[in-house]
Write a structure and sequence with these properties.
2 domains; Rossmann fold; alpha/beta; globular; 19 strands; homodimer; 6-stranded parallel beta sheet; Quinone Oxidoreductase, Chain A, domain 1; 7-stranded mixed beta sheet
Chain lengths: ~350, ~350
């Protein structure tokens, strides 16, 4: 079959690889209907050392179950399924608490012998715990929105839920990528009435407004911080949803958060150390929370409003490419000419 | 009157200063009944640059109201009062939310022209917001426990409440100082049934056991972390109460916290940067919370059990000195021959 592999920074190729087969009785084989390129795929696209073997790519996909192992009970051949960006057994202590990204027997796509989603088919370990079936037939018009439940919508939702967003909180969202915009949508769904989106790409912030942003702050750094403080009577916001992962975004979060407030991070931090002392978090009793979103925990909850069209998170996709053109997805997202790219095998 | 001043590292003297007088109509003058030395007083005791003027010391005291300004309504001459370690107006947006340490018109003792608690009397700004009256007559046997409501008990309580301690959480407390031990007591009051105290001063950890610690881990660093993991089936604890403020304590907290757990800090951080990236907090979805405790918010809630003897947080005091001997309080606490020192003017 065909699959996208990365062989080094800026080097994504679609190559022939063996079809995946069942290995463990808990496996399923899923034929991919739609996959996509993630903002986090750009990190290796910028920095991966050259490799002659390459590494499979992609961790978001929806598809049709083609085959299941003997121990699989909850999904069956022909099911239309959503695969979250981490696979998990659904039964360990962390899964039962809804923290599937810390599953004791789980893992991530495109690692440890498991393929990536940017491919024609994928072997899914722990299929019972991992996959969520969607009632069929599925309207192809819903594919894009369903695919966001694999990662970006659930990740934006995780930011908002972990941050404690409610009707009583003011919110700032840092980052106008797909996760930031869906953090806006999530904050809106959770009842927030002041949602300040910090981003400067007008097409994206326009979509942010459509998703529920009440203010857009295009300024960055101290200027952006001042703007948010002005919009909040000098106090700052109760909850900051940080959907970028770079240090300037962290500093911006510290600058706009209110005393007693919360910074909820879902942008994968590209730093290990950061200010947390008296002058940043401690003195103001600011809480820092977040992490890799256990999107599996949220799919059933978010699915109905996607299916009935109440929300359209799939609007974050603004370019579609064929699997053969996957590299173009990386290039356009890196150039920021595309917000998020849908891949059709 | 007499008051303790610090003139540089290791140099505390009791000197003659003018009696405090009412300045603002919201002031009260309080004659100090008991004050004490705080672990955080040892930070300047180690590092304060030499100063010919010196700085007043002490931020914990109980006393009798001697005089009130015209605008003071809730406390009166003769009242026996507890003064929290931060003064606050009680009416601003943060005070109303119970975050008095961020009061828009508040501040801290021994700064900005306000005296310290290690003195015969103190001018208390914003007396209505700051002071809490205790029903009189007050049994002198309760003085020590009432004084802990000024800081260390409320600070231990803040750690436990901010960390979300409940009957459903396992808890580790890092630090066997007064705050750590009262964090143990607080966790016990909040229903925790597994409370692991990390400390190695046996007299203190014995008091910790009396306050509710179910396990004591004397080992530090990796060895201490391994011990806590063993005690928790390899998972780590749901909540870590960090009552030290030095980097090794932070690292220990990161090492023993469970995926999805919380580190609640009340030890004033002696660092500004710390690990918060994928390898420390983010990857495990760990929450970092805490800060200067708004002890004012907790006094009314914690007072009844102190008054009726249900709890005896005053047991953390193991040395009493006269105001004239305040310097001895610093020396013995620094040498760790005293846990916490009561000062009687």
């Amino acid at each position: 079959m065909r699959a996208a592999y990365m062989y080094g920074a800026g080097d994504v190729r679609v190559v022939d690889v063996p079809e995946p087969t069942l290995i463990d009785p808990t496996d399923a084989i899923v034929r991919v209907v739609r996959a996509c390129v993630c903002g986090s795929d750009l990190h290796p696209w910028h920095g991966m050392p050259e490799s002659s073997e390459g590494t499979p790519m992609g961790h978001e996909f929806i598809g049709i179950v083609e085959q299941v192992g003997d121990a699989v009970a909850t999904v069956a051949e022909g099911d239309f399924v959503i695969a979250p960006f981490a696979w998990s057994d659904g039964t360990c202590v962390y899964c039962r608490e809804g923290l599937q990204t810390s599953c004791q027997h789980g893992g991530f796509w495109a690692a440890g012998g498991i393929g990536g989603g940017q491919a024609e088919a994928v072997r899914v370990p722990q299929a019972d715990g991992t996959l969520v079936s969607v009632p069929t037939p599925v309207d192809p018009a819903l594919y894009a929105s369903l695919l966001t439940l694999s990662d970006v919508y659930g990740t934006g939702w995780h930011a908002a839920v972990s941050g404690g967003v409610s009707a009583d909180t003011t919110v700032a969202v840092i980052g106008d990528g797909a996760v930031g915009l869906l953090a806006v949508l999530s904050a809106k769904q959770l009842g927030a009435t002041t949602i300040i989106l910090m981003g400067r790409h007008e097409a994206r912030t326009d979509l942010g407004r459509e998703f529920g942003a009440t203010e857009v702050v295009a300024e960055r750094g101290d200027e952006g911080i001042q703007k948010v403080l002005e919009l909040t009577g000098g106090e700052g916001v109760h909850v900051v949803l940080e959907a970028v992962g770079h240090m300037p975004a962290y500093e911006q979060a510290v600058g706009v958060v209110r005393p007693g407030g919360t910074i909820s991070r879902v942008g994968v931090p590209q730093y290990e150390e950061a200010p947390v002392g008296f002058g940043s978090l401690f003195g103001k009793n600011v809480t820092l929370t977040g992490g890799p979103a256990p999107v599996r925990a949220y799919i059933e909850q978010l699915l109905p409003a996607v299916l009935d069209g109440t929300v359209e998170p799939g609007k974050v996709f603004d370019l579609e490419v064929s699997l053969e053109d996957t590299a173009k997805g990386y290039t356009t997202m890196d150039e920021r000419t595309a917000l998020k790219v849908l891949v059709t095998p």
